[in-house]
């Protein structure tokens, strides 16, 4: 049985890049498993990030959005995401775009065995 995946996406004031980032994450996650979700954790953005995140939840059933009313920091955003995640495997999408590329590469040759590759990825191998 294939395990489920949750991708945590902590953001703040990301209105300019959020849609593109979400589409990238969805593309990679869909190649890894059919059972995934993307949690956008808006850490008190002052721009339209929250509105864009809400709109994305309407277009993509795999996307959920959570919002802090004020900035609490990355650690708090991650704690919030972890407490709301439903996946058996959790991946944090950093600001660094390469994180999704590395996740994708780590899972490549043997899709059925992507869990072992995720462990290698997490260990920095």
Q: Give the N-to-C terminal Cα separation.
A: 26 Å
The CATH topology corresponds to Spore Coat Polysaccharide Biosynthesis Protein SpsA, Chain A
Number of separate domains: 1
Structural class: alpha/beta
Total helical segments: 5
CATH arch. level architecture? Alpha-Beta Complex
The CATH superfamily bears the name: Spore Coat Polysaccharide Biosynthesis Protein SpsA, Chain A
CATH level 1 class label: Alpha Beta
What does the average pLDDT come to? 83
Largest pleated sheet: 4 strands, parallel
By DSSP, the count of extended strands is: 4
| Percent helix range | 40-55%
Low-confidence stretches: 104-114
Task: Characterize the overall form.
Answer: globular
Q: Nearest-angstrom radius of gyration?
A: 14 Å
User: What order do the strands of the largest sheet run in, or round the barrel if closed?
Assistant: 3-2-1-4
Order of helices and strands: EHEHEHEHH
Strand content: 15-25%
Summarize the structure.
This protein is α/β, with parallel strands linked by helices. It has helices at residues 18-32, 49-59, 74-84, 98-107, 114-122, and strands at residues 5-11, 36-43, 63-68, 89-92. It is built from five helices and four strands.
Write up this protein:
The protein has 125 residues and is α/β, with parallel strands linked by helices. Helices cover 45% and strands 20% of the residues. The protein contains five helices and four strands; from the N terminus they run E-H-E-H-E-H-E-H-H. The chain has helices spanning 18-32, 49-59, 74-84, 98-107, 114-122, and strands spanning 5-11, 36-43, 63-68, 89-92. A four-stranded parallel beta sheet has the order 3-2-1-4, sandwiched between helices. Helix 1 runs parallel beside helix 4 and helix 4 crosses helix 5 (114-122).
């Amino acid at each position: 049985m294939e395990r489920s995946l949750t991708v945590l996406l902590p953001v703040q004031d990301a209105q300019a890049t959020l849609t593109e980032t979400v589409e990238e994450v969805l593309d990679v996650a869909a190649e890894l498993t059919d059972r995934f979700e993307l949690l956008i954790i808006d850490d008190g953005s002052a721009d339209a990030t929250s509105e864009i995140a809400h709109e994305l939840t309407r277009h993509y059933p795999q996307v959920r959005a959570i919002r802090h009313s004020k900035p609490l920091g990355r650690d708090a955003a991650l704690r919030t995401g972890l407490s709301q995640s439903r996946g058996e495997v959790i991946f944090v999408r950093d600001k660094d775009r390469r994180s999704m590329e590395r996740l994708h590469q780590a899972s490549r040759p043997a899709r059925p065995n992507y869990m072992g590759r995720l462990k290698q990825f997490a260990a920095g191998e």
